[in-house]
Design a protein that fits this description.
single chain; alpha/beta; Arc Repressor Mutant, subunit A; D-Maltodextrin-Binding Protein, domain 2; 5-stranded mixed beta sheet; 10 helices
Length: 298
């Protein structure tokens, strides 16, 4: 059942084989044995595609439910044990996952060596239930109301620019001034292009900005701001060291941007495993420590 669920999730027999360390011929043989035992074909396969038959859809639905019940049973039985153990699947954003979460996973693995931890980084938010992840670490709130969330770090956002840019083009004194400035645009998911929203004295103000440079990668746009190409919206987590060194300056600090707080999302609190709770507590312990807070309150 676990193997078939992996095949359906990945949409590829070869990818499922890699996930469980099987050779492609062994994976094909395992699927053939399953179909032979059931007396039905579960998958339609061509050289380029793979799809579920109606019997495969039914098998997947029941297998997913049964495996979840087995996992819940094992977790309930093992709750009394002090040491977290078993498989934990974690999703995180690309850059932040690589630079910050991955070292924390390493530290967590040293503390809890009996936890098998699989980490995957993706650009866009994923469906935790469909993808089989236990939790996801993301900046900002997610629209999926089926998920539970715990905030693990506050993270304000600011307008910033390099001293070089501000000396050359001047410091904006109002939001209206942004129209004549070069702005660097970070394209994120389905956000409207070049639309910045601010809160000022309980009023919401929307500004359409323009610029010659844009990217969907946060590290790229930050590098362009450091090179003096324009004004950028960035979170305090990314800005802290550059503000301290003077390489970037905050502009229009009185206008508040929507925060990009860091959350950990998970499907169900009732059935949460001891290993998932231990990992979430570990993240909170790190990010709420004084040395983890990037900027003092201003």
């Amino acid at each position: 059942m676990q193997f078939f669920v992996l095949v359906a999730r990945h949409g590829s027999l070869a990818a499922a084989a890699r996930a469980v360390d099987l050779t492609p011929p062994a994976a094909t043989k395992r699927l053939a044995a399953l179909e032979s035992r059931l007396g039905v074909r579960l998958l339609n396969r061509t050289t380029r595609s793979l799809s579920l038959t109606s019997e495969g859809e039914t098998y997947l639905q029941h297998a997913t439910r049964i495996l979840a019940e087995i996992k819940e049973m094992e977790d309930v039985v093992s709750q009394g044990r002090a040491t977290p153990r078993g498989l934990l699947r974690v999703n995180a954003t690309l850059g932040f996952g690589r630079t910050t979460i991955a070292p924390l996973v390493s530290a967590f693995a040293l503390r809890y060596p009996e936890v098998e931890l699989q980490m995957e980084v993706t650009d866009r938010p994923i469906d935790l239930v469909e993808s089989g992840f236990d939790l996801a670490i993301r900046f900002g709130t997610l629209p999926d109301k089926r998920l539970n969330a715990r905030r693990i770090m506050s993270n304000r956002r600011f307008l910033c620019a390099s001293p070089t840019y501000l000396e050359r083009h001047g410091v904006p004194a109002s939001l209206a001034d942004l129209a004549r400035h070069r702005c660097i645009i970070h394209r994120q998911n389905d956000d409207a292009y070049g639309i910045w929203r601010f809160l000022h004295q309980d009023d919401t103000e929307v500004v359409k900005v323009h610029g010659m440079l844009s990217s969907n990668d946060g590290d790229i746009v930050l590098g362009w701001a450091l090179d003096g190409h324009g004004i950028l919206v960035r979170s305090e987590w990314d800005l802290a060291k550059y503000l301290d060194s003077g390489r970037l300056r905050i502009v229009l600090p009185e206008f508040i941007l929507p925060a990009a707080d860091l959350y950990v999302y998970y499907p169900s609190q009732r059935n949460q495993t001891i290993r998932a709770r231990a990992f979430i507590d570990f993240l909170v312990e790190h990010f709420q420590a004084p040395q983890a807070r990037p900027l003092a309150a201003t």
